[in-house]
Design brief:
There is one protein chain. The protein is α/β, with parallel strands linked by helices. The chain has two domains: 3-320, 3-Layer(aba) Sandwich (Alkaline Phosphatase, subunit A); 468-622, Alpha Horseshoe (Serine Threonine Protein Phosphatase 5, Tetratricopeptide repeat), CATH 1.25.40. The protein is 39% helix and 10% strand. The chain contains 24 helices and 14 strands. The protein has helices at 3-11, 15-24, 55-63, 77-86, 90-93, 111-117, 137-140, 199-228, 256-259, 293-301, 371-381, 387-390, 421-438, 449-453, 458-462, 469-481, 488-494, 499-511, 520-526, 532-544, 548-560, 567-580, 585-598, 611-622, and strands at 30-36, 65-67, 70-71, 121-125, 143-144, 159-165, 235-241, 263-266, 283-284, 288-289, 326-330, 340-344, 348-353, 399-403. The strands form three sheets. An eight-stranded mixed β-sheet has the order 5-4-6-1-7-8-2-9, sandwiched between helices. Strands 11-12-13-14 form a four-stranded antiparallel β-sheet, covered by helices on one side. A hairpin with a 3-residue loop joins strand 12 (340-344) and strand 13. Helix 16 (469-481) packs parallel to helix 18 (499-511), helix 17 packs antiparallel against helix 18 (499-511) and helix 21 (548-560) packs parallel to helix 23. The radius of gyration is 25 Å and the shape is globular. The chain starts with a helix and ends in a 5-residue tail after the last helix.
């Protein structure tokens, strides 16, 4: 059924048809979701970490089914939740950029809305964070608050209830507890090999293990409440983490530590026809990801699955065959720009970095609240990190390929290994084809969203006749994977009428460094481009070629022109200024004046949404202009 037709059907549900829907769902399962924050699968005992203390989740896994290849499609909460809610990738919806307010297409629905139309009472307790300016939580849920519960449902009505547990959120390690109060011994911690052995690193690990134990107790409490309500044997229970985490290089990064999440599903015997394996207690090796959750819910309850949904049902009547891959995306994380795409099969992970000129460990204000992150940076600056630990503070390769069976920490990049060339090409193609299939909005720089979306969503724009999708794929492919000596293509792309094509021309010339010297005249002209992303990367390329004066002038134009450019434009330019340390006196003064005018916005949690002011503050601190 076409999505538009399905939504039209929903709009004509009358009270009488809703009563009939309720009667039809009288034998449907209740569904309980328990969601924890920022914890990778590796922080649970049932996933093989014997230092973890998670008896309640372990017990649930013993009675249910543990999915050992479950993934978040985005390694951070808001875009991850956008994919969960809609059944479409956040990178397809135009909702990938962390902490943004872009509209989701009217063609896209939510699983909560579909479940309610199928006769379910739907509650959310209480985090929403859907990364969309057009999805109103008050309209999609029967109840969404910190008091929301399935216990308030009308008699005889099946429920779908979400409980979000914040105990393990990244912020839980921002304030160290006294060492003597830790229940897990820092000395017994096994650190990831890419983390230096600092006191702060061990303390944050141990504190996080304590937080996981506390979260597990909350899971136990919710399960006990369900049991005492007499509903346990009529309720399917999902437990999962909302993304990986929480020590630096996990959350926000498309590695296993940032995307592999725990997923345990308990299915009462009453619904054993849904069992994904022969018997409870077994592990399920099927690859699943968040985009699969919405269609799976609809498959379980027997509701139609809209055609726009990009995931695959893994339970129920509409269950599909096992997918070969899971896909992950990384875009802007708060004030920091980066773009990566990843694909995971049963053995390998392939990553494509579209901004290899950015280091992994860009200073991100919220992340660096963690003592462990700050201690890692200090250790690197003091020369106390080995090559593996130092890589986080250096620029990236365009491609990364990891053998997850033999290298679970993803520290040995095999992209250049001739023995794995066929694997590399296969996964490279799979990723490109997926980007075409979902019409990846990441092909457009965020600075230009408003230019193309207008009054619609980026999802709609990418599906319009105005979008040159194939040329975007071609230009972006040339930029990062093309012949390093091919400068002519970049010059040609710089002259295209579409700003995103020009952006990839500038990106590719920046990546080619000295080889792009012959393009200095075109890069200088691109510094006047109406797209700040094009102009910024042209300036960065010029700076690297020794053309520092015209580069600084380009940056200054973007920072001072408040009519043509907004916060997103300034933030993109400030990211570039930081990367090359363009600290000319003129630039310093412009940034200082801007900071003095806007520093009042950097108070409380609001500071994490004032991206340009936040970047200005960081640069001035870095340059010792302010403390």
């Amino acid at each position: 059924m076409k999505t538009a037709n399905y939504l039209a059907l929903l709009s004509v549900f009358t009270p009488a048809t809703q009563v009939r829907a309720q009667q039809m769902t009288s034998n449907k399962p209740n569904i309980l979701w328990i969601v924890s924050e920022d914890n990778s699968a590796g922080y649970l005992h049932c996933y093989g970490n014997h230092y973890a203390t998670t008896p309640n989740i372990d017990n649930l896994a013993g009675k249910g089914f543990l999915y050992n290849r479950a993934y978040a499609n985005s390694p951070v909460c808001s875009p991850a939740r956008n994919s969960i809610l809609t059944g479409a990738y956040a990178a397809s919806n135009g909702n990938e950029q962390m902490r943004s307010n872009y509209s989701t297409s009217d063609r896209i629905g939510t699983y909560a809305g579909y479940l309610r139309q199928a006769g379910y009472y739907c509650t959310n307790n209480s985090k929403t964070d859907y990364n969309s300016g057009s999805i109103d939580p008050n309209k999609i849920w029967d109840e969404s608050s910190n008091k929301a519960t399935y216990k308030n449902r009308p008699a005889g009505k099946p429920f779908f209830a979400v409980f979000n547990l914040m105990t393990t959120h990244e912020s839980s390690i921002h304030n160290p507890v006294p060492a003597e109060k830790l229940r897990h011994d820092p000395a017994k911690i096994t650190l990831a090999p890419y983390h230096p052995d600092t006191k702060e690193m061990r303390h944050d690990y141990a504190q996080y293990y304590d937080n996981m134990e506390d979260m597990d107790a909350q899971v136990g409490k919710l399960l006990k409440e369900l049991e005492e309500s007499g509903l346990a044997e009529s309720t399917i229970v999902f437990y999962y983490g909302d993304n990986g985490g929480v020590i630096a290089r996990s959350k926000r990064y498309v590695y296993e530590s940032g995307t592999r999440i725990p997923l345990v599903i308990y299915i009462p015997e009453k619904f054993k026809d849904l069992y994904p394996a022969e018997r409870p207690g077994q592990q399920v090796s099927r690859i699943v990801s968040f985009v699969d959750l919405a269609p799976t819910l609809l498959s379980i309850v027997g509701a139609p699955i809209p055609e726009y949904m990009q995931g695959h049902a893994f339970l129920g009547a509409k269950k599909t065959g096992d997918p070969e891959y899971a896909f992950m995306t990384r875009g802007r994380m708060d004030e920091r720009y980066d773009m990566s795409r990843a694909v995971r099969d049963r053995k390998y992970r392939y990553i494509r970095n579209y901004m290899p000129f950015r280091i992994y460990g860009q200073h991100l204000d919220y992340l660096f609240n963690a003592p462990s992150a700050r201690s890692w940076e200090t250790a690197y600056k003091e020369g106390k990190c080995n090559a593996m630990q130092s890589a986080f503070w250096q620029t990236k390769p365009v491609e990364e390929l990891y053998d997850m069976e033999n290298d679970p920490w993803e520290v040995h990049n095999l992209a250049g290994d001739p023995a794995l060339h066929e694997v590399l090409v296969r996964m490279r193609k799979a990723l490109t084809h997926w980007m075409i299939d979902i019409k990846d909005v990441g092909l457009i720089p965020e600075t230009d969203y408003d230019r193309f979306a207008g009054g619609q969503s980026m999802y709609d724009y990418m599906r319009s006749d105005s979008c040159p999708l194939q040329l975007l794929i071609q230009a972006s492919g040339w930029a990062v994977l093309g012949n390093p000596d091919d400068v002519g293509s970049g010059v040609k792309f710089l002259h295209n009428s579409h700003s995103a094509i020009r952006y990839w021309g500038a990106t590719g010339l920046l990546i080619r460094k000295e080889s792009a010297r012959s393009a200095i005249p075109e890069l200088t002209s691109a510094g006047e481009d109406p797209s700040s992303a094009v102009a910024t990367l042209a300036a960065e390329a010029l700076w690297g070629l020794g053309e520092t004066k015209p580069a600084a002038a380009i940056y200054n134009r973007i920072l001072l022109d408040t009519v043509s450019f907004d916060m997103t434009d300034r933030n993109f330019a400030l990211n570039s200024i930081d990367a090359i340390d363009c600290n000319s006196m003129e630039i310093k003064d412009t940034i200082r004046q801007f900071y003095l005018k806007h520093k009042s916005s950097l108070t409380g949690f609001a500071r994490y949404n004032a991206y340009d002011a936040l970047m200005s503050e960081w640069l001035l601190k870095k340059w010792n202009v302010i403390e």
